[in-house]
């Protein structure tokens, strides 16, 4: 489940919570603190090794996918 | 017939009015904080022309906007048109739908959807001695907030609370649907408090701190030119939120609500 951000997203982290801005269309999406921890994995295209982490990571990816902010590495919108 | 012209600013835009001295004197009084000297070399983005001091006709760049209407309707329309001009004429700034007031150079941004009581709270804070920057657009430039000191607009439902802002006799004929209060334009160095205001008769006046990430998302919702501002605008909003305190405020009792805002402004970050 390796994904990458859609386009050039802008991320600001405020008190541990990330807010993602998509300049292409002006959409804004807020991540909770857990999700924010995995943002660097998304941008690096790295899935966590630990199975417990993978579960949390998967929830985060689902959150981003629902918001239309990530696509599969092959470019398909999830 | 003698005609006169006056020129005004709406953020980065310029607008002019050409009319009888009776009209120009009154428009200049209402928009005093935004009047600038005439400069024939700098074209106006909007040019109003008014014919008639009784029933009046308003045109802009040759297009008829109103014909043979009450003078108050002419002023209402000019205020509306100038607001629209400001919204579209300042691409360098991030424009938040909200009011701005200041004390000692530290601004309070009052925002929220239409009809929640932004102007009412701004007016209350001005009566407490706050300096006025805007009741419509909080313009955030690279070096801080920029004033758009259009006349403060007080709707009939709120006028009973703001007796000191009642128009003088020579302007009352122009202000039958709203009071347009000409306040001096203040300046501010930073936004210190962001207030998400809500007026609700069913709830007690109360204040709640808003997490910064939530505040940023809600501010983005109130920033119509966010997409046009791009990453620069988003980062500017984030920087403002990072340096400010953000609160939800139910402003039923306006006096108490103003007290609560003052408390936040004076409290340590």
Question: Explain this structure to me?
Answer:
- The complex is a heterodimer of chains A (78) and B (269).
- Chain A is α+β, with helices and mostly antiparallel strands and 78 residues long.
- Chain A has 3 helices and 5 strands; from the N terminus they run ββββαααβ.
- In chain A, the strands form 2 sheets. A 3-stranded antiparallel sheet of chain A has the order 2-3-4.
- Chain A is globular, with a radius of gyration of 12 Å.
- In chain B, 32% of the residues lie in helices and 32% in strands.
- Chain B contains 8 helices and 16 strands.
- In chain B, the strands form 3 sheets. In chain B, strands 7, 8, 9, 10, 11, 14, 15 and 16 form an 8-stranded mixed sheet that branches.
- At the A-B interface, β2, β3 and β4 of A face α6 and α7 of B.
Mean pLDDT across residues of chain A = 78
Uncertain stretches of chain B: none
User: Which descriptor suits the 3D outline of chain B?
Assistant: globular
Q: What's the gyration radius of chain A in Å?
A: 12 Å
User: What structural class do the secondary elements of chain B suggest?
Assistant: alpha+beta
Question: Helical amount among residues of chain B, as a percent range?
Answer: 25-40%
Question: In percent terms, what proportion of residues of chain A is strand?
Answer: 25-35%
Largest sheet descriptor of chain B: 8 strands, mixed
Count of beta strands of chain B = 16
Terminal Cα span of chain B = 60 Å
SSE succession of chain B: EEHEEEEHEEHEEEEHHEEEHHEH
Provide a compact summary of the structure.
The complex is a heterodimer of chains A (78) and B (269). By secondary structure, chain A is α+β, with helices and mostly antiparallel strands.
